[in-house]
Design a protein that fits this description.
Length: 322
């Protein structure tokens, strides 16, 4: 039993493969655009909104083979009579007319040969192989190739174009584009062939910014990250890590550690204290101490008992969110 589809099916420009039309001898109840295969005649039929029309690549269906006869009323006519695969017998009259006299010999077997034309210029006989005049007085219909070359842009081949040209739509260059002068895009971005890339900036004035590579000893690649943001200068990059050494004196239990990060929030600094006395049994180990974040530039490290005289600890200060 056939599956019933009660809505349109959109294939989104994909192929319908190995499909088969509805095969029947009886035309189905139809609406415009419906199609089926008529099994008796071997033809494809489509409904045009008012009736069924036959579609076929069979020449006996697309083109009728006629028998001929001559009709002399209203001028000389050749009557063609034939019957297509589907449909009734039809007659078509071909009338011969002309503006000049036709002269033939006085016999009854004169032949006028009518041949088909495939649309190719090379199939015509008696045509010139080339047009040779180098100059002429044209009438806006006939131009030489040299004249055309100066009036239009050719699709193929080399051509020199003089004067200013304005293109109102997209231009695609499939090969290399060589510019001997300065190229300006939208009157904002200027590309210099020898002095780097010059940016006009947001205002058209006497101040520009230049992006320039130094002297290179090999090919170099500079990759911008896949993200939006502002490119920072080296002077804008702050030191986000500092290691500060504190030394015990046998009496002090707290030490001021100035990292000078100028924090916008006091808590945006991570502190780790490591035993840095190489002769200590705990050298290189992290120790647990009290940390008080007192200002935007300072933390206070405190011990439960005073570190021995000469005992050193390294305080690692890491600014968060940089």
């Amino acid at each position: 039993m056939a599956i019933q589809y009660l809505h349109n099916i959109n294939l989104n420009d994909n192929e319908l493969q190995n499909a088969k039309l509805h095969v029947t001898d009886s035309a189905p109840t139809a609406s415009a655009g419906q199609i089926y295969f008529h099994s008796s005649s071997g033809t494809i039929r489509v409904h045009n909104g008012s009736g069924w029309s036959t579609l076929s690549t069979d020449q006996t269906d697309d083109f009728i083979t006629y028998s001929t006869s001559v009709v002399s009323s209203s001028g000389i006519k050749l009557r063609l009579t034939g019957t297509p695969v589907s449909g009734s017998t039809t007659t078509d009259d071909v009338k011969f007319t002309g503006s000049q006299n036709i002269t033939i010999s006085r016999t009854d077997d004169s032949t006028i040969n009518i041949q088909g034309f495939d649309g190719a210029y090379s199939s015509l006989s008696g045509t010139p192989s080339e047009f040779t005049p180098s100059s002429h007085n044209h009438n806006n219909i006939y131009y030489t190739e040299t004249e055309i070359d100066g009036m239009v842009v050719k699709l193929t081949g080399n051509q020199s174009i003089a004067g200013n040209k304005t293109f109102s739509n997209n231009v695609t260059v499939s090969g290399n584009l060589t510019v001997t002068g300065t190229t300006t895009t939208n009157n904002v971005e200027v590309v210099s062939t020898s002095n780097g890339v010059v940016f006009e900036g947001s205002a058209a004035d006497a101040n520009e910014g230049t992006l320039l590579a130094g002297t290179l000893s090999a090919d170099r690649t500079y990759t911008l990250p896949n993200k939006s943001g502002t490119v920072a200068m080296t002077s804008d990059i702050r030191d986000a890590f500092k290691a500060i050494t504190i030394t015990g004196n046998g009496s002090a239990t707290s030490f001021n550690v100035d990292h000078n990060f100028a924090l916008s929030d006091l808590i945006d600094v991570s502190i780790q204290v490591v035993d840095s006395l190489s002769s200590s049994n705990t050298y290189g180990q992290t120790v647990v101490v009290g940390v008080d974040r007192t200002t935007a530039n300072r933390v206070v490290v405190s011990f439960g008992s005073a570190p021995a005289n000469g005992q050193t600890y390294k305080v690692h200060c890491i600014q968060m969110g940089v």
